[in-house]
Amino acid sequence: MLRLSKLADYGVVLMAELARDPECGSHNARELAELTRLPFPMVGKVLKRLTRDGLLVSQRGIHGGYALARPAEQIPVSKVISALEGPVALTACGVAPGSCEHEPSCHVRTPWEYINRAITETLDRVTVADLVRPASAIAFAELGVR
Amino acid sequence: MLRLSKLADYGVVLMAELARDPECGSHNARELAELTRLPFPMVGKVLKRLTRDGLLVSQRGIHGGYALARPAEQIPVSKVISALEGPVALTACGVAPGSCEHEPSCHVRTPWEYINRAITETLDRVTVADLVRPASAIAFAELGVR
DNA sequence: ACATAGAGGACCGGAGAGGTCCTGTAAATA
DNA sequence: TATTTACAGGACCTCTCCGGTCCTCTATGT
Known about the structure:
- The structure is a homodimer of 146-residue chains.
- Chain A has 146 residues and is mainly alpha-helical.
- Chain A has one domain: Winged helix-like DNA-binding domain superfamily/Winged helix DNA-binding domain (Arc Repressor Mutant, subunit A), CATH 1.10.10.10.
- Chain A is 52% helix and 5% strand.
- Chain A is built from 8 helices and 2 strands.
- Chain A has helices spanning 6-20, 29-36, 40-52, 77-85, 92-95, 109-125, 128-132, 136-140; strands at 56-59, 65-68.
- In chain A, strand 1 (56-59) and strand 2 form a beta hairpin.
- In chain A, helix 1 (6-20) packs across helix 3, helix 1 (6-20) packs across helix 4 and helix 2 (29-36) packs across helix 3.
- The structure holds a DNA duplex (30 and 30 nucleotides).
């Protein structure tokens, strides 16, 4: 089913949760785990990775927590996914040339590149802000989706 | 990396190989395995599934083999993928409602639906014929891809 | 009848996803 | 400065499921 890993799925949910706060303030991992009802250890793991990739900023200590590194409108969903499960690509050749043993004899590589790009661009166009906007449908009009 | 299963990957390659034959004639599994350099048992497995799903027609017996069930222009890549790894969807909720335990408390479900649909439509628009057309770029223009 | 090729399974090993836990370090408060 | 809280960065484990093989049965042509 062309599955997204749970790590990436959780990441999207958590980013959206942070963006839901109108002030985009700081929330700690435990709080986010409760809000999203996701297992706390996983939430910690995901938040750490998102921080390392520069999508979140963290604050240690007693009133520590996480906050969006940039306004939600400037964070594409594709970045969230790639931070957690590597580059968005359907096939190995879309990630790095030479990573597929069949590359020399493969006749469908070029088309796959186009498909990969089309999908990447779709995920580039959706931002974290779109995930929390109530009237999402409007925001998605530009995707050409009914 | 938002991975496609190898089964589906092989399926696409095999469908393309069948479409490359200008007469779209019948080819047996062994022959296709040699042409694509994929392991023969896997080729058999994939071809069987594609046949069960009505994308290929098969002929048993001494001059048996497989051929496209329809003209390549009428076979979207999305069908090939879904025949081999189930419905195209990034999240469980995109496959069947109620399949995700977090559904009641999840706030990003609606946006995911739109994203799922955008990606599905991308894969719907590409046909097996596009995979073998030399000047693929032209065929992909309609995807809005550079 | 016999050789060939597909149909439909069962079956197996290993990689990797999903999940937990532990130790270290930074910050705030008293 | 001691203590508590929370993030940082791993190691580590379990178990599912993917990738792959193989075997038996049935259909077809010679």
